[in-house]
Amino acid sequence: MLPAVVSGVFLAAMLTAAINIWLARRKSREEEISRLRTAFAEAFAAHSAYKEMPYAIRRRRFDAAAEERVRLSETLREIQGNLSYHLAWTKIESEVVGAAYAELVQELRKTAGAAMRAAWEVSPIESDTAMNIPPAQIDLSTLQTLETAYIAAVREHLRALRRSWWSR
After folding, report:
1. To the nearest 10°, the Cα dihedral for 13, 14, 20, 23?
2. Of 58, 66, 80, 166, which is the most buried if we count CB atoms within 10 A?
3. d(CA 56, CA 26)
4. 51 and 114 in contact (C-beta within 8 Å)?
């Protein structure tokens, strides 16, 4: 009778340990996926910050030109650093996501960069009615397809991580 009780206790302990290990791995994997989701979103936020710079330049203060040049150039420098960081990080994390992000950033720098140059060449906005900037002045619509491709690459990468977890 004692061996049956001992082996029953042993079996229960082993089953409990296995369940706890499985739950811990599951929680760890979900935390990792959440961390990646946040990091990929931060990469997109860096892209969005750069994308907004033509509008910020166009809407700069007209009564403090020198200070605005410094403020906006420092902001742009910080954004450029973030873009460079995220370019490297996405390439390290996933070749496919990194390629999609690199293509997005390349087009972003070309399109938004040209819009920034044009925004610096016009006088700052001085009235509330001029705050609405039509697409004819700043058109960044060419980025939409690449933004969608980046998001799709991220989504597939995260899905693949979930699938690979279940197969382990």
Report:
1. -150
2. 58
3. 44
4. no
Calpha distance 101→147 (Å, rounded) = 8
Residue 116 and residue 51: Cα distance in Å, rounded?
9
How far apart (Å, rounded) are the C-alpha atoms in residues 28 and 47?
29
Q: How confident is the model at residue 167 (pLDDT cuts 50, 70, 90)?
A: very low
Tokens 């150039």, residue? 73
Which tokens in the block code for residue 91?
């390439």
